[in-house]
Amino acid sequence: RRVPAGAVKVTPAHSHADLALAHAHGLPLLSVIGDDGTMRPPGGGWLQGVHRFVAREKVVAALAERGLYRGTQDHAMTLPMCRYRCPLPVTP
């Protein structure tokens, strides 16, 4: 039997799906992305002020440097996009 191993980003304060997962597993709700799209405490001091997309790349690089990064797999998902002010994904 194959046992899944790995990590997944879970942001219960920023995603309805992640919120349901957090409730099911008793995870705390922490808001780590500011209104301007940058990381804020308690998201890790080394990422504070870094834009969320850049922060994602930095986390992958940090895992790779430590020999902990094993790759990325794409998964289908519904991602609402802003169509009025910007072409960015909408974070609830």
How would you characterize the overall build of this protein?
One of its GO terms (biological process) is valyl-tRNA aminoacylation. It comes from Ardeotis kori. By secondary structure, this protein is mainly α. It has a single domain, classed as Valyl/Leucyl/Isoleucyl-tRNA synthetase, editing domain (Isoleucyl-tRNA Synthetase, domain 2), CATH 3.90.740.10. Helices cover 26% and strands 0% of the residues. It has helices at 16-25, 52-65. The chain is globular.
Notable characteristics:
92 residues, mainly alpha, Isoleucyl-tRNA Synthetase, domain 2, globular
Record the SSE blueprint:
Layout: H1 16-25, H2 52-65
Radius of gyration: 15 Å
- What CATH calls the topology is Isoleucyl-tRNA Synthetase, domain 2
Order of helices and strands: HH
Poorly predicted parts? none
| First-to-last CA distance | 37 Å
**Which range best describes the helical content: under 10%, 10-25%, 25-40%, 40-55%, 55-70% or over 70%?**
25-40%
Tell me the strand percentage band: under 5%
Average pLDDT metric: 83
Number of strands: 0
Helix tally?
Answer: 2
Instruction: Please write the CATH class name.
Output: Alpha Beta
| The number of domains | 1
Q: Major β-sheet, in short?
A: none
The CATH homologous superfamily is named: Valyl/Leucyl/Isoleucyl-tRNA synthetase, editing domain
